[in-house]
Amino acid sequence: MCGIVGAVSARNIVPVLVEGLKRLEYRGYDSCGVAVHQDGALRRARSTSRVSELCTQVKTESIEGGTGIAHTRWATHGAPVVHNAHPHFSHGSGEVGSRPGRIALVHNGIIENHEELRAELTARGYVFASQTDTEVIAHLVDHHYDGDLFDAVRRATLRLRGAYAIAVFCRDEPHRVVGAREGSPLVLGVAKEETFLASDAMALAGVTDRIVYLEDGDVVDLQPGRHWIERRRDDGSERFETVVREVRTVQAHSGAAELGPYRHYMQKEIFEQPRAIGDTLQGVLGITPELFGDGAYPVFKEVEQVLILACGTSYYAGSTAKYWLESIAKIPTSVEIASEYRYRDSVPNPKTLVVTITQSGETADTLAALKHARSLGMPHTLTICNVATSAMVRECKLAYITRAGAEIGVASTKAFTTQLAGLFLLTLALAQVRGHLSEEQEAEHLKAMRHLPVALQAVLALEPQVIAWADEFSRKENALFLGRGLHYPIALEGALKLKEISYIHAEAYPAGELKHGPLALVTAEMPVVTVAPNDALLEKLKSNLQEVRARGGELYVFADADTRIESSEGLHVIRMPEHYGALSPILHVVPLQLLAYHTACARGTDVDKPRNLAKSVTVE
Ligand code: F6R
Predict the structure, then answer these.
(1) Is 363 in the pocket of ligand 1 (CB under 6 A)?
(2) Are residues 239 and 283 in the same domain?
């Protein structure tokens, strides 16, 4: 999703800005741009192509300067065309004393009152050159500008409703960039004679590892080698006060991971899962609540129920965990789609463990749902997250950091399986505190978890068989996925993977639900993918498969070794290496990831950057 980079320095900063955008590219974007202060004027280049094209444009047009901002845009308001790409310039004010073209601005987020502000600024003589909500902020800063950019931004933010992270500079103050955030991530990078802004510390890898995480209500003044932060007071006074935020040294991590022998990051990330799970479980010598942070024991002891909040693939990880939490830890669990939860009336219980699940830790819907749960009086918060420095980890009292490593492909794979590993540990820790985990059971579960990397390798070895199926799938326009119990969320995740990267319409059902409606869709043209582990529901599932075959449906079944489901006319079987008990979902999702991946390859889609999607969804 949208990315911001900004800098003030004595050297030409354009290469750093463009490199920062490249590091944010994996998040998905549809246009990009850069603006600098050059020879007393604002200069910019914008493109609806890739950042590499922007780089060529910048060189051709000799755009250089020590003060600048850059942006990757994922369109919300206005089509992905050059005139909507950021940076936006203020211009056209009819007011006395204001000169056109002096403010340059980039923005992540959504300004909810943009229509009202647009009308007001238009009446004041400002001329709009785009359909974006962002452009109102550029004009608003210009309107408040009276020789001090920091003050103008402070005053402008008081008028904004919605979510934003902004970076701004002014033609009349050549060595200054000002940033502000409310609801969208923004970090400050500190170096000896330079200061940086970015929407993610990853954008500054290789430039500085000294990072300040800005908080909602912060306005920051950047000058070469120094910065100043003020925070809007929350007493309703519209006044600001100076704050000092900790400078943290973060592990430099680069988004530019090598592809190695793989065609796409998604394939690489699928094959990294044995390593990712191994790393996620590294150091887990036994089950203890402290795996989730100091102070977890009294919280786990006190809570009566679990509320899981997440979106997309992370929501399906939560849906799988519900089965574990209720059957192993015997704790009532509800799972809510974050964007729905925050807008509905619910019945809060202060003795709830609120668990958020998020790969990025920056998903706006999940962060807002967490805040909503807290505002309802539920103080016990825990996150399962892949980014230790993310907003979510900072917001939650307890955390388990998965060690999937940077996930570049938009479609989540290794983040999902490592989330499941973290959630299984949470289940065992809650079971232990609640007296439902004997030492023998703990030892058995841990043994199975430690064997997961080996078991995953065996599943990955099925790739050639999956490729043969993918070839067939690539000619279909619809697919059904079936699963039961613990594997129903896995069927949902398989359908999501297929639709988001191959653009084949796919839906998932609990197999017992077929005859209540979706069976009407089944014809020879409808492939039906079935997750068939050898569990207590297998015999029921076999009956559901008969219902499909009887209607001419074509079945593609992932069956555990000992299920006695054999290939026959209209029934294709890929045999999974072993049945894996409660942890079976972690294995069964892998062939579904491979099926989606190879189907998308066969259809020639942009696998790592599927159309319309972004990696880190930082707007509501
Ligand atoms: C699908 C996918 C998305 C994310 C969702 C939540 O492959 O990646 O559905 O799972 O946007 O993102 P995080 O986990 O970063 O909160």
Answers:
(1) yes
(2) no
